[in-house]
Design a protein that fits this description.
Structural class: mainly alpha
Distance between the termini: 39 Å
Order of helices and strands: HHHHH
Largest sheet: none
Radius of gyration: 17 Å
Oligomer: single chain
Number of strands: 0
Length: 172
Amino acid sequence: MTIRLDDAIKTAIEFEQKVLKVYQDAGKHAVDPVGRRVFEQLAKEEAGHVAYLESRLTEWQKGGQIALAELQSIVPDKARIAEGRKRLAKPMRGKAASSTEVEYLQRALAAEKETSAFYRKMVSELAEERRTLFARFLEIEEGHVAIVEAELDAVSGSGFWFGIQEFDVEKG
């Protein structure tokens, strides 16, 4: 089955909007200030993804071509996050997160994994010249999965936080 590029981009926009909503809602309900900043920064990044994809879709619809502008991310790649967690493991934050915060992190993790799976599928199924757009999104979303997992570890008592000095979502 051949996937049309415009359909793939429209679906990507839907995934990004879904994850954006999770982060926006989570940011409004987060009690922990660090958790709130994480949610707000990830929401800002997801909003940028929506805008980027919408601009690529418009460009495709107008001329049948897409110029791939560089897509930046505030989140380091998955490998760097994992390395930081191992190297700079510190005990978790002192107070436990609210059950609502943990629930939003779990929702975010599920949404990010679902989004990553979509991008992985696009990278494997689209024609080679069209994969680049989705390959960069896959890389970014895998970083989001890693950061949400790290935050979930930090607030749920199931692991260790790797330290805000190594990775600051506000500074990138």
